């Protein structure tokens, strides 16, 4: 398949895919309900609004949104709404889950629950963001900007695998992965540089598959050929990274919000490692970001089913 270059291409393909149901946790938020309405009208998803039914309908009416477009499961508590949405997935009543106006902790806790959650065996919950920004010639995948505070070596290896799978689904056969730090040199007192060097060697020995991995790399030489040439460093990533792996959530989250508010980037983001894709963006993110994230979740879910990777 041809490599996907824009988030709109993902949305266009999602429109043509089989309709899936999404359990929306606490959709009583203007940007969430507007994104859901658009995705519903584009025939991307059929929403099940799990949360305060009265508040959701009142909000829809105030925004001139036809509330009859949605199905409802009435739950007044936000944490209980998250658990109910997970139950709908487990029972086959929905195929996707989306975070609305509910705290990330409540949303994640319901998915991670060892008895009733959605995690696969030997997996971790992580997060992949796709960035489309005018200053870069292709989509840029980033992990982890939202879930894992201080990923260890094994978690970083899984983060690479999850992001690589997503890039593969977008037509990128062998993505180039930059393991980021503040320097290109391995320094014993900077754990991120040690992890990066180990991950590079693991990929070289085929312990991490289907991608090219190099690190430690500073951000500039991961994405800018002039900077790479200026530092006279040889890297198989060649300053053309498809995937950025951040050393911790602080670095990743700052990148994410800088791309949105300073870079004016288009963004889509989902959780990885669970039985189904889950939309997870900030409560303050725009309707556009939430719409593209819904489309991404649908696209990934449908592609996995198509390839037998679910």
Q: Would you kindly provide a written description of the structure presented here, covering whatever features stand out?
A:
This protein is α/β, with parallel strands linked by helices and 310 residues long. The chain has two domains: 1-119, 3-Layer(aba) Sandwich (Rossmann fold), CATH 3.40.50; 120-273, Isopropylmalate Dehydrogenase, CATH 3.40.718.10. 42% of the residues lie in helices and 18% in strands. It has helices at 7-15, 30-41, 53-62, 78-90, 104-112, 153-169, 191-204, 219-223, 225-231, 249-261, 287-307; strands spanning 20-25, 45-51, 71-74, 96-99, 126-132, 140-143, 176-180, 212-217, 243-245, 266-272, 278-279. α1 packs across α11, α2 packs across α11 (287-307) and α4 runs parallel beside α5. The longest helix has 21 residues, at 287-307.
């Amino acid at each position: 398949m041809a490599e996907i270059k824009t988030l709109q291409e993902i949305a266009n393909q999602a429109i043509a895919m089989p309709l899936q149901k999404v359990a929306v946790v606490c959709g009583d938020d203007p940007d969430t309900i507007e994104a859901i309405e658009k995705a519903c009208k584009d025939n991307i998803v059929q929403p099940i609004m799990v949360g305060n039914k009265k508040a959701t309908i009142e909000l829809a009416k105030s925004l001139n949104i036809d509330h009859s477009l949605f199905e409802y499961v009435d739950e007044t508590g936000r944490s209980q709404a998250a658990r109910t949405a997970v139950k709908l997935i487990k029972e086959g009543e929905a195929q996707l889950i989306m975070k609305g106006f509910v705290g990330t902790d409540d949303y994640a806790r319901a998915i991670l629950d060892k008895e009733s959650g959605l995690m696969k065996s030997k997996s971790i919950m992580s997060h992949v963001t796709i960035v489309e920004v005018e200053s870069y010639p292709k989509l840029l995948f980033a992990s982890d900007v939202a879930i894992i505070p201080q990923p260890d070596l094994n978690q970083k290896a899984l983060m690479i695998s999850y992001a690589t799978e997503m890039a593969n689904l977008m037509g990128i056969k062998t993505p180039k992965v930059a393991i980021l730090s503040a320097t290109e040199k391995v320094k014993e007192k900077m754990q991120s540089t040690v992890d990066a060097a180990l991950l590079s060697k693991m990929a070289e020995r085929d312990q991490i598959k289907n991608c090219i991995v190099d690190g430690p790399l500073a951000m500039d030489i991961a994405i800018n050929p002039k900077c790479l040439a200026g530092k006279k460093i040889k890297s198989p990533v060649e300053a053309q990274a498809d995937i950025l792996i951040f050393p911790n959530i602080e670095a990743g989250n700052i990148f994410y919000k800088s791309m949105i508010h300073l870079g004016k980037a288009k963004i889509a983001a989902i959780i990885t490692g669970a039985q189904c894709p889950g939309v997870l963006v900030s409560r303050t993110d725009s309707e556009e970001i939430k719409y593209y994230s819904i489309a991404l979740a649908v696209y990934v879910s449908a592609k996995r089913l198509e390839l037998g990777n679910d």
